[in-house]
Automatic annotation (TrEMBL):
<comment type="similarity">
    <text>Belongs to the LysR transcriptional regulatory family.</text>
</comment>
<dbReference type="InterPro" id="IPR036390">
    <property type="entry name" value="WH_DNA-bd_sf"/>
</dbReference>
<dbReference type="Pfam" id="PF03466">
    <property type="entry name" value="LysR_substrate"/>
</dbReference>
<keyword id="KW-0238">DNA-binding</keyword>
<dbReference type="InterPro" id="IPR050950">
    <property type="entry name" value="HTH-type_LysR_regulators"/>
</dbReference>
<dbReference type="GO" id="GO:0003677">
    <property type="term" value="F:DNA binding"/>
</dbReference>
<dbReference type="GO" id="GO:0003700">
    <property type="term" value="F:DNA-binding transcription factor activity"/>
</dbReference>
<dbReference type="InterPro" id="IPR005119">
    <property type="entry name" value="LysR_subst-bd"/>
</dbReference>
<dbReference type="Pfam" id="PF00126">
    <property type="entry name" value="HTH_1"/>
</dbReference>
<keyword id="KW-0804">Transcription</keyword>
<protein>
    <submittedName>
        <fullName>LysR family transcriptional regulator</fullName>
    </submittedName>
</protein>
<keyword id="KW-0805">Transcription regulation</keyword>
<feature type="domain" description="HTH lysR-type">
    <location>
        <begin position="1"/>
        <end position="57"/>
    </location>
</feature>
<dbReference type="GO" id="GO:0005829">
    <property type="term" value="C:cytosol"/>
</dbReference>
<dbReference type="InterPro" id="IPR000847">
    <property type="entry name" value="LysR_HTH_N"/>
</dbReference>
<dbReference type="InterPro" id="IPR036388">
    <property type="entry name" value="WH-like_DNA-bd_sf"/>
</dbReference>
Length: 311
């Protein structure tokens, strides 16, 4: 039964019978037969079939939701028993919004020091995709915004407060200023994250509230791309203070706080709300709470990047 529920999860992820079968390590015929066996057992059609996968029926969506819970609990049970036998080990998958990537090392470094047999994968993605990955059991936890858009059914640990700076070349129109307003910012050509990123939605909303219209001259889903363009001193960008700190000192570059308003949003760790949680996720939540206690919510970057938040 568990294997057949895994087939449903793979089909939901891949939206294609062949690719789903490949990820499960079985033939397409085996996967189709497994899904058909579930349909026979429940007495309802779960998948809309044609020449290709066309989605789940309403009954299939309900079974899919239960499958995620059952498979997740089964994996948690297996990990729990394995941890009792040989200690904490395995693969911990963390998804993070691009602006929170500098924070990841503050969690993974003390984690590895305590549990050297755990390996990590870190994926940079959108806040919406983080929750989809967690729901589909493709990520164990995420780093994302906690207070701007709905979170859903997760456990969350606030880590720090994101606030914003204008990164621009020295000698520009605001070079002698201690701060710049969002209204003034609306008149500057910027390079920004793509609109599917929550950071970009926050910036766009604030620029419009200040009477401007976002008109970036360059967009990217990578903070590295934005950083490298800012380093040329030919581009300006709006970045969280933690990222401005990660960028490091650059001759000719100025980081100017943005005010009116001094916009702030909470960033934190999110994980599936499951009792009991998997041992690896439980350990990550414990480390996150320890790190959070060491951070200054108004200016977390020095603690995060220079190692005082290691728990």
């Amino acid at each position: 039964m568990i294997d057949k529920l895994e087939f449903l999860l793979a089909l939901a992820r891949e939206q294609h019978f062949g690719r789903a079968a490949e990820t499960c390590g079985v033939t397409q015929q085996t996967l189709s037969a497994g899904v058909k066996s579930l349909e026979d057992r429940f007495g309802v059609r779960l998948v809309q079939r044609g020449s290709r996968f066309q989605g789940f029926t309403p009954e299939g969506e309900r079974v899919l939701a239960w499958s995620r819970r059952i498979v997740g609990d089964t994996r948690a049970m297996q990990d729990d028993v394995a941890a009792l036998r040989r200690g904490l080990s395995g693969h911990l998958r963390i998804a993070a919004v691009p602006t929170a990537l500098p924070m990841v090392a503050a969690l993974t470094t003390p984690y590895r020091a305590r549990y050297p047999n755990v390996r990590f994968s870190v994926l940079s993605t959108t806040s919406e995709e983080i929750f989809s990955l967690i729901d589909n059991l493709e990520a164990d936890a995420g780093l994302t915004y906690l207070d701007n858009e709905p979170l859903g059914r997760v456990t969350s640990v606030p880590l720090y407060t994101e606030h914003y700076q204008l990164l621009t070349a020295a000698g520009g129109p605001y070079d002698d200023r201690a701060s710049v307003t969002w209204a003034e910012l609306a008149r500057i050509p910027l390079c920004l994250l793509t609109p599917n990123m929550q950071n970009r939605r926050i910036i766009d909303q604030q620029l419009r509230a200040a009477g401007g219209e976002p008109a970036p001259t360059l967009e990217s889903n990578s903070m590295v791309v934005l950083m490298t363009h800012v380093r040329t001193l030919q581009w300006a960008s709006v970045m969280p203070a933690i990222l401005a700190d990660a960028l490091g000192p650059t001759e000719g570059l100025r980081a100017i706080p943005i005010v009116e308003p001094d916009l702030r949003h909470a960033i934190g760790l999110v994980a599936p709300r499951r009792d009991p949680a998997t041992p690896m996720v439980t350990a990550l939540l414990t480390i996150a709470r320890s790190v959070a206690r060491t951070l200054d919510g108004d200016d977390p970057a020095p603690s995060v990047l220079h190692g005082s938040g290691t728990g």
